[in-house]
């Protein structure tokens, strides 16, 4: 029995040594980054305070009431790491403009944590790709370069429900300087990003309903909205009804000489040529509205490349 107790004590000593090593490795990893605001903001001050409160009774018990050096040592090491993370969380080493006392740092950290306290819960009730959904809706509302109050209110209702901040004015000022055709292309890419996460088909169908509601909320569907609406409707319907054959439009780029072939390879590095029409052709993308496909084709024509639109069945 005594031999067994000695073995257990040796294992406990070994565990304490490993705890010291683990604590060092954990602290060492974050030490060089302790001054970065993003690192400080990633540590929960409340969690560290709870850790301290739940550790102190054990320290008191195994120091004054039932002395046990092994347990005291283990709890002390864990308490030291908790205190270290507490200092990280309150931003003790983060440089701020002006002087800021310790108590001010604590209050600021707790205020930030309060604002973010429901992030995880909200993430659990949000649909897949909630931020991307809002981005698609925002871009669609701005596609006619008109910041309509009713469209903003419609989108803001979803942003509030999902606790996502959205700055319409900043986005409007930065994005509407672009050419309209580029805004169309960027919006399509954003929708492709949403579909790439493979959302539930019922959710995708509901998203399509939301899109239809958005474009009609101001009781006026502009030409720019209708142009992109036909394309994104086709994309979502193709995703929902993937097993059904449907008409699509392939943008074909055909090199006319060696220089043209080099240009196409630079523009479409991941596209392999295929033999068609008596030569090699490149598919620059498949679209679901002929006007949209023709717009893309014209962009290649603008680069002095031969491009056309071919109707296909998917």
In the residues, how many domains can be counted? 3
Overall CATH class of the largest domain: Mainly Alpha
Q: Total helix count?
A: 14
| Strand adjacency order, main sheet | 2-3-1-4
Report on this structure.
The chain is α+β, with helices and mostly antiparallel strands and 314 residues long. Helices cover 65% and strands 9% of the residues. The chain has helices spanning 2-31, 37-41, 45-65, 69-89, 102-115, 119-125, 130-141, 149-161, 168-175, 180-195, 201-216, 223-240, 258-267, 290-301; strands at residues 247-254, 274-276, 279-287, 306-313. Helix 7 runs parallel beside helix 11, helix 10 packs parallel to helix 12 and helix 11 runs antiparallel to helix 12 (223-240). The radius of gyration is 30 Å and the shape is elongated. The termini are far apart.
Notable traits:
alpha+beta, TerB-like, Alpha-Beta Plaits, 14 helices, 4 strands, 65% helix
């Amino acid at each position: 029995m005594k031999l067994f107790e000695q073995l257990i004590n040796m294992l406990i000593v070994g565990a304490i040594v490993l705890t010291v090593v683990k604590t060092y490795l954990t602290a060492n990893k974050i030490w060089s980054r302790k001054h970065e605001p993003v690192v400080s903001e990633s540590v929960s001050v409340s969690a560290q305070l709870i850790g301290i409160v739940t550790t102190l009774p054990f320290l008191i018990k195994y120091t004054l009431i039932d002395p046990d050096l092994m347990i005291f040592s283990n709890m002390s090491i864990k308490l030291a790491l908790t205190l270290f993370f507490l200092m990280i969380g309150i931003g003790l080493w983060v440089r701020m403009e002006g002087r800021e006392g310790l108590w001010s740092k604590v209050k600021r950290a707790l205020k930030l944590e309060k604002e973010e306290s429901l992030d995880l819960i909200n993430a659990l009730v949000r649909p897949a790709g909630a931020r991307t959904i809002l981005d698609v809706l925002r871009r669609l509302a701005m596609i006619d370069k008109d910041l309509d109050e009713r469209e903003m209110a419609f989108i803001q209702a979803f942003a509030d429900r999902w606790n996502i901040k959205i700055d319409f004015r900043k986005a409007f000022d930065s994005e509407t300087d672009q050419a309209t055709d580029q805004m169309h292309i960027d919006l399509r890419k954003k929708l492709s990003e949403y579909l790439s996460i493979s959302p539930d088909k019922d959710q995708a169908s509901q998203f399509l309903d939301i899109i239809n509601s958005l474009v009609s909320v101001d009781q006026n569907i502009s030409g720019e909205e209708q142009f992109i609406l036909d394309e994104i409707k086709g994309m979502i319907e193709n995703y929902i009804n993937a097993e059904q054959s449907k008409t699509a439009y392939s943008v074909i780029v055909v090199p006319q000489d060696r220089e043209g072939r080099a240009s196409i390879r630079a523009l479409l590095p991941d596209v392999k040529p295929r033999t068609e029409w008596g030569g090699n052709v490149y598919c620059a993308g498949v679209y679901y509205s002929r006007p949209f496909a023709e717009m893309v084709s014209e962009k290649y024509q603008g680069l002095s490349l031969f491009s056309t639109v071919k109707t296909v069945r998917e």
